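Chain X:
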Amino acid sequence: MSKGEQRIGMVNGFAAYGMWGLVPLYWPLLKPAGSVEILAHRMVWSLAVVAGALLVIRRWAWAKELVRQPKRLALVVVAASVITVNWGVYIWAVNAGHVVEASLGYFINPLVTIAMGVLLLKERMRPAQWVAVGVGFAAVVVLTVGYGRLPWISLVLAFSFATYGLVKKKVNLGGVESLAAETAVQFLPALGYLLWLSAQGESTFASDGAGHAALLASTGIVTAVPLVCFGAAAIRVPLSTLGLLQYLAPVFQFLLGVVYFGEEMPPERWAGFGLVWLALVLLTGDAWRTARRARSEISVPSTAIATGTVSAARKPESVASGVSTGTPGAVAGASEVSAVAPEAVPSPSGVVPEGDAEPMPPVAKP
């Protein structure tokens, strides 16, 4: 891939995670609408935006296949339900003045993803990952003491999004297609709620001016545009790089909470966040070491294959030997490459499932 393509990918990656990181600035603009009304508008207008995009690019074949597969369709319903919880809690948290605690949810999400992978998918963890998860657990304990309660907002956001990622892994749809399927499930309940709210005279969509209505309608754009940017980045940037870029969103959210919204950060909260960041440093460092080691192991068989080819050219009898025996040296080299390749680009969580080279989805949609 050319450097120009990689630059385009990086720009799109920064744009996607930057928009997700700055979205706490947007939700307060939708007041006096309540969190549930905002959530319902987000579902309705997101479907309108992605459906329009899919019509323009004429990409609907996946929908027919999905409808014919009840198990995948059921998983889409589960994904839609889980992301509804995630979106709803996040919108409420931001508008209720809990931006910092919401950001914590996306900081600890990779750690929760690892824990769920071990418990549900029987994945194997490296020692550094065990340490990172342990430090993350200690951070939750410290923050519980600091808040005087469980940081339930963070935990709900982290566990709901980790579950969402797990389900999406099984559904195996592209980002825009997945959003279209999920919002199609959400659409009728959301529209029904908005109509009921309007009948009760409590809807703000028509009563608070054209500007307010336009902002509510823009929830679809705010949801879809970062996802499109992420898709453009994902095909041009290594997943290991995206795994680092994903931390931009909670970093921006944390800074907004502390600097812009002026939320309190007593020493015990700094201590808890410090432990979380330490866990993420351990996790990221381990992922990079694993990737570097995997690349070096790939280069060894490649060198051996090249050496064998030169040797065969010098000794013609070795070619005959190689043909008659199936060239065991070359076959062994190929199998080594195949065995190590899945680890060459680690998933953002740093865990690769046993027998499954596909990394966990890195997308975050706060």
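Chain Y:
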Amino acid sequence: MELKGAQIVFYYGLAFLVLIMAVSLIRARSAVHAALYLMGALIGVAGLFLLLHAEFVAGAQILIYVGGVVVLFIFVIMLVNVREEITEATRLFTRQEAVAWGLVGAMTIATVIALRREANLVPPAGALMEEPLALAEDTQRVGSALYTRAALPFEIASLLLLVAIVGSVILARTRRQEETFD
């Protein structure tokens, strides 16, 4: 599939957003902030799926990963009551990292400007309707693949989520019981 015009700009914008969120996730000092950065990265990936006309996969990305897994992470963080260590103030980036991120940003801006000069970013009236939305067809293909060829990985993923939920409940219940006995 070839991206055209504004889609290219959105692609690079979303890719840059996902990259920034992923680096921020790795560098986050707070577990809650890391979970929020993960949420931002997953939303950016869902946007990339939308650009590829995989609407079902984008919706599943939002519902399952952002709406389920990240919220579960945040609940576990709150239930376990992670205490943050007091650290001395340090720079967010070293000088080399700041230069590298500046170069990445400058290259992104230069790419967007170059593409903007070459491409007509405003499509003509009716051009967006040339390709009919095949959402039902896409959903049918994903569903048949999910329940035929990928049935075992799907079931394993659902079991892992179940184990994570049960584990968080056990951790929360054990912690409350210890507090009542003290």
